[in-house]
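Bug #77: duplicate submission created two jobs. Keeping one. Sequence:
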Amino acid sequence: MTLENLKKYAEGMSSTYPDLDDDIRDLYFLAEMEVEDGESETNECELAIRDIKQLIAKWDYEVEKLKRGE
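Kept job's structure:
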């Protein structure tokens, strides 16, 4: 994966989960900075996607708890 693909993915997730926009953007920019510092682009993109998915999963879990009144 490339940073360009990661950006498209992050933008899509941000539009789907607007409440998480700032956090998703932060994860994208972190990956971008790491690549600029010499880290593997593929690895950093994979890490960012993993973290975005975890963020969304946690968000979905919390929303479901609220819906159930927990």
